[in-house]
């Protein structure tokens, strides 16, 4: 399941990107394919249950990325920056934090406030130091004001600053909320790494954030997008502010189109337009078969001159940031 994409020799002193999840909100396998199987049954979903997830690139949790950031290799300074904590966060921690020896989370960045990006927030306490009185350093979370307003309604106990008089102490995740602008011209630092917000349309009524990061290699992570505003496209296109070294991009369905996501045909057109050096696709439904579609992409990449592959859960990509 190893990808051909890589940016360093893979030594432990370098940074890496670890894909905790590469699937859509409903994940893969699709539950209805198992409860009400078609004739013949969906091959991807059947395979998803017949092969252990750690050996099965067609088993997909909610899209999420962990950045294992080595700021100063000589000092052994490692930071672990997480993008999104969706419905499958706990499952991915058990599977991939253990496998990749990730000891903690130093900071979290949220793309938006939909369920597949934030419903694992309660489980952040599982990767924090234990304290029955919540007397620990909070984990910084960076998010837009719109996401903050929504999360305050979903998780009021994670947002309130102090307990009401007479309220019992209950162990909950300790979080330091930081509002970021949905503006390409207003970068921010998370655990020492600079991120540039990339506002994109997730349907014409909703702005989601992607993120640009890395100086030695420029990486853009865009998980939920249906259209790129011109200002955002300029920042990440070869014909604009400069060519990306790696584009990580949304691709929901294998064919057709969708009102709030890019699908495979539009994704590949976007890749040609932005012209990154390499691309990994995320957010896939059960329409994608990892092996078959990567064979297709191998031929497409040779023809177009832009390497493109499907990512998979657990994929680790060494990279200089």
Strand order of the largest sheet: 6-5-4-3-2-1-14
Query: How large is the share of residues in beta strands?
Result: 15-25%
The number of distinct helices, counting runs of at least 4 residues, comes to 9
State the CATH superfamily name: Ribonuclease Z/Hydroxyacylglutathione hydrolase-like
The CATH topology comes to Metallo-beta-lactamase, Chain A
Order of helices and strands, N to C?
A: EHHEEHEHEHHEEEEEHEHEHEE
Tally of DSSP β-strands: 14
> What is the 3D shape?
globular
Separation of termini?
Answer: 24 Å
The largest β sheet comes out as: 7 strands, mixed
What is the architecture at the second tier of CATH? 4-Layer Sandwich
Helix content: 10-25%
Describe the structure.
With 321 residues, the chain is of the alpha/beta class. The protein has one domain (16-161, 169-310): Metallo-beta-lactamase, Chain A, CATH 3.60.15. The chain has helices at residues 31-35, 43-50, 89-99, 115-118, 145-154, 156-159, 230-236, 264-274, 290-304; strands at residues 16-21, 64-72, 77-83, 107-109, 139-143, 175-179, 188-190, 193-201, 207-213, 219-222, 246-250, 279-282, 308-310, 316-318. The strands form 2 sheets. Strands 6-5-4-3-2-1-14 form a 7-stranded mixed β-sheet. The longest helix is centred in the C-terminal third of the chain and has 15 residues, at 290-304. The relative contact order is 0.18.
């Amino acid at each position: 399941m190893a990808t051909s994409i890589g940016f360093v020799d893979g030594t432990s002193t370098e940074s890496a990107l670890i894909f905790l999840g590469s699937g859509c909100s409903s994940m893969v396998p699709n539950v209805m394919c198992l409860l009400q199987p078609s004739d013949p049954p969906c091959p991807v979903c059947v395979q998803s249950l017949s092969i252990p997830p750690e050996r099965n690139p067609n088993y997909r949790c909610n899209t999420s990325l962990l950045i294992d950031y080595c700021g100063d290799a000589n000092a052994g300074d490692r930071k672990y920056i997480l993008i999104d904590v969706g419905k499958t966060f706990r499952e991915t921690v058990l599977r991939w934090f253990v496998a990749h020896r990730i000891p903690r989370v130093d900071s979290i960045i949220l793309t938006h406030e939909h369920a597949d990006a934030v419903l694992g927030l309660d489980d952040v306490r599982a990767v924090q130091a234990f304290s029955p009185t919540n007397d620990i350093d909070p984990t910084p979370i960076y998010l837009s004001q719109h996401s903050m307003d929504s999360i305050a309604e979903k998780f009021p106990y994670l947002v309130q600053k102090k307990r009401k008089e007479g309220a019992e102490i209950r162990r909950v995740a300790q979080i330091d909320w930081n509002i970021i602008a949905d503006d390409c011209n207003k970068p921010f630092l998370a655990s020492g790494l600079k991120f540039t917000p990339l506002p994109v349309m997730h349907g014409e009524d909703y702005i989601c954030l992607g993120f640009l990061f890395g100086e030695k290699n420029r990486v853009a992570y865009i998980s939920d997008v249906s259209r790129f505003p011109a200002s955002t496209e300029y920042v990440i296109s070869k014909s604009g502010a400069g060519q990306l070294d790696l584009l990580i991009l949304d691709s929901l369905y294998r064919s057709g189109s969708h009102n709030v996501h890019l699908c495979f045909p539009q994704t590949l057109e976007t890749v040609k337009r932005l012209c990154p050096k390499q691309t990994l696709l995320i957010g896939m439904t059960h329409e994608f078969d990892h092996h078959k579609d990567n064979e297709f992409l191998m031929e497409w990449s040779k023809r177009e001159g832009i390497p493109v592959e499907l990512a998979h859960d657990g994929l680790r990509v060494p990279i200089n940031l």
